[in-house]
Amino acid sequence: MRQIAIVGSGPAGYYTAEAANKKWGDDVRVDVFDALPVPYGLIRSGVAPDHQSIKKVALRYEKTALSSNVRFVGNVSVGDDITVRELQELYDAVILATGAPNDRQLQLEGDQLDNVFGSAEFVGWYNGHPKFADLNPDLSGKHAVVIGMGNVALDVARILAKTSAEMRGSDIVAHAFEALHTSNLETITILGRRGPHQIMMTPKELGELLQLQRAAPSVDHADLPPPADDTNLEPGLRKSVELLRKFADLPEESHAKTAITIDFRFFAGPKAFYGKDGRVTQVECERMNVVDGRPVGTGELFRLPADLVISCIGYRASPLGDVPFDQRAGRFDSVDGRISPGLYCVGWAKRGPTGTIGTNRPDGYNVMELVAEDMTSGSHKRGREGFDELASERGLEIVTFSDWQKIEGAEVAAARSGAPREKFVDIASMIAAKS
Fold first, then answer.
1. What is d(CA 78, CA 98) in angstroms, rounded to the nearest whole number?
2. Which CATH class is domain 103-315?
3. According to the model, what pLDDT value does residue 375 have?
4. CA distance 227 to 21
5. Closest by Cα among 337, 334, 325, 331 to 368
6. Which of 129, 10, 20 is nearest to 70 (CA)?
7. What mean pLDDT, rounded, does the chain reach?
8. Is 299 a residue whose pLDDT tops 70?
9. Taking a C-beta distance cutoff of 8 angstroms, is the pair 153, 146 a contact?
């Protein structure tokens, strides 16, 4: 019997468990560990709450989780409750699917001012992640600046701009729903160092900005390259740039009828944050040129008003004990997912924060081929049985998938009108709900 431990229960973790099931069937046992008592990682705490159709992929993971040979082991922190080395002693293969839960830091003057946040913090706040539920951003100001030119920046801007009615069918948590309802924002500036041809925003997410009830997007015609330059762009990016052109062509009446302007500022690199009484009030920017696809500063500085700043410039994995880690790239150090025989990584822990949710599926299947190469047969390690003994000795309260179903049932029962659920935002409440 092969014994496999997967650390992380998000998309990468469950696709990997699915791959193990298909590879070995009844001849494998898979334990999927998570520090939280609830599964699904990025699907629960990263995907925008108004994108419920994307969250339905969890139904696929549930099918794997309910397999007789796959077990969810929630409320167990690998690195604190048990080390990677200890897992390696118990299991034939240990696969790190921890994602990249930490913000990449801007490291600019003033980035410690109040109301300056990273996207992991801010997204975690409105999605109810226990680590960030108490963030309490101040939304009383008029001006927000969102730094970044990817879909996370779009998600943040869209959530800030939506009305309560538009958020009705989402699973945004109550504290964020109520805070956003009282927001006084008038401008949301999306700031990027490069130009329209270098954005990472997809057409679907950009197109959603045209559907907002109280907000309209704006692009300066001067920031757009000549239309003929779009010809050689790949199709998805070309569609995105076409939407930016549409934003630039919106009549003045569109903005006159809306309370919020979502202003795209290209060729603008943040240089410093300035504040008053410890709270951010301005972002200093440098006008940039793009040379061979890279932003180059011109020396021209200007400032934008900013009562709230959210930096959406990428994520990093967390180092774990003595597991080799690439500090520069912010991910585990591996060769195609193999850290060493018996120790592997998948998803963002392997690649960094790139690709879609579906990109994690081939990662999971590819790493299982590496496991098969290194482990031709079971090594008679104790696996699940050994872990359960250790957990009992250490007084760990394991949350199983059936426990999670009770937690989920309680969240669904507590949902406000029109919402799919009301998430618990602290671990104690999650644990209590399974009893």
1. 10
2. alpha beta
3. 85
4. 50
5. 337
6. 20
7. 95
8. yes
9. yes
